[in-house]
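Duplicate of #3305? Posting structure anyway:
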């Protein structure tokens, strides 16, 4: 097969970018309108409680962004930041008290939790009716049966992005790289529900490129900076990059961003890192038809969908 590198630069394809920011803003505006209506008609204001344990800097940023979004759309929010030394029992007690509070509609526990606390046990302690992340086994079970439920925010946001951008799903070959509970598996379920032919790849998949090159729609969620290159992508495919990796290494930045590397290196100077996805953007742009950027792609949609799930929980809990 001819490689993208063999094609003169001026003849190479340039993938169009799918703009997550615009669609995330649309969704947040719709949620804000729904909340204003809920207040006007029922005097209900949805409430979200975020729980974070320890000092992981990335988790602190994610929770801060979620709290900021709550303020933008009119959700009442509270942030429980617990010390690293918190025990599983103390955390479960907090969850239990949030479960019983009528002013809390949604509970999110920012993962990963520090070692020593059983993530799965804590997620199972959340009332499924308040599980706005869609991680509780009851909600995962409903999703896999194709029944209405809280859908994990990242894959739900990707579906919104595809549908609102007019990217076809039904009948396409879709490939998801990654089989995590929070992204890969629910992503595959949602694509299957929309009649895609779905393949799930993971670290034991043999000859990954041959499998991924069949995909019209390639969703990458592995947590390895710039891992997916031009050789993994079918010409013209839509590539959704879920990865959020903090990169500090200059050589890798130069390899991934080519002419755009200087801007990224400036970001490293200012912030200490630059955020990159699991897809090599320079190579992907030479082969793909559409691509999501990092940042500015899937991450913003994840937060918007959390807002939407919280309003949904507030309504369902009150039978509205
Ligand atoms: P995870 O739980 O670590 O799962 C990674 C998956 O990738 C696993 O299924 C693993 O396979 C697979 N994998 C790893 N190396 C591979 C390789 N060389 N070839 C093929 N598959 C490979 O990760 P996650 O929580 O799903 O997150 C993935 C990425 O998405 C991370 O960068 C994370 O930060 C990002 N993320 C972003 C958002 C957002 O809002 N944008 C939300 C969530 C996550 P095995 O199962 O065989 O180990």
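Output from current build:
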């Amino acid at each position: 097969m001819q490689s993208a590198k063999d094609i003169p630069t001026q003849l190479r394809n340039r993938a169009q970018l799918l703009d997550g920011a615009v669609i995330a803003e649309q969704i947040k505006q719709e949620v804000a309108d729904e909340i204003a209506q809920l207040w006007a008609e029922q005097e209900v204001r949805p409430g979200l409680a975020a729980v974070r344990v320890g000092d992981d800097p990335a988790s602190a940023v994610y929770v801060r962004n979620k709290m900021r979004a709550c303020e933008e759309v009119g959700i009442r929010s509270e942030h429980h930041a617990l010390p690293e030394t918190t025990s599983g029992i103390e955390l479960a007690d907090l969850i239990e008290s949030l479960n019983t509070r009528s002013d809390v509609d949604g509970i999110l526990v920012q993962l990963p939790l520090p070692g020593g606390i059983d993530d799965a046990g804590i997620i199972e302690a959340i009332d499924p009716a308040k599980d706005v992340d869609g991680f509780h086994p009851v909600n995962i079970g409903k999703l896999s049966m194709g029944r209405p439920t809280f859908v994990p925010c990242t894959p739900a946001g990707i579906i919104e992005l595809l549908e609102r951008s007019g990217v076809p799903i039904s009948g396409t070959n879709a490939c998801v790289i990654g089989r995590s509970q929070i992204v890969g598996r629910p992503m595959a379920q949602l694509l299957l529900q929309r009649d895609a032919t779905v393949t799930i790849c993971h670290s034991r998949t043999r000859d990954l490129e041959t499998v991924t090159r069949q995909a019209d729609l390639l969703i990458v969620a592995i947590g390895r900076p710039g891992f997916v290159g031009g050789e993994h992508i079918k010409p013209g495919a839509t590539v959704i990059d879920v990865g959020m990796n903090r990169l500090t290494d200059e050589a890798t930045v130069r390899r991934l961003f080519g002419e755009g590397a200087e801007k990224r290196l400036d970001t490293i100077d200012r912030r200490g890192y630059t955020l990159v996805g699991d897809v090599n953007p320079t190579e992907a742009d030479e082969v793909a038809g559409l691509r999501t950027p990092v940042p500015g792609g899937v991450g913003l949609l994840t937060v918007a969908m959390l807002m939407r799930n919280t309003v949904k929980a507030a309504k369902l809990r009150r039978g509205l």
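Confirmed duplicate; merging threads. Residues 154, 177-180, 182-184, 201-205, 208, 221-224, 242-245, 298-299, 302 surround NAP (CB under 6 Å). The CA atoms of residues 15 and 285 lie 5 Å apart.
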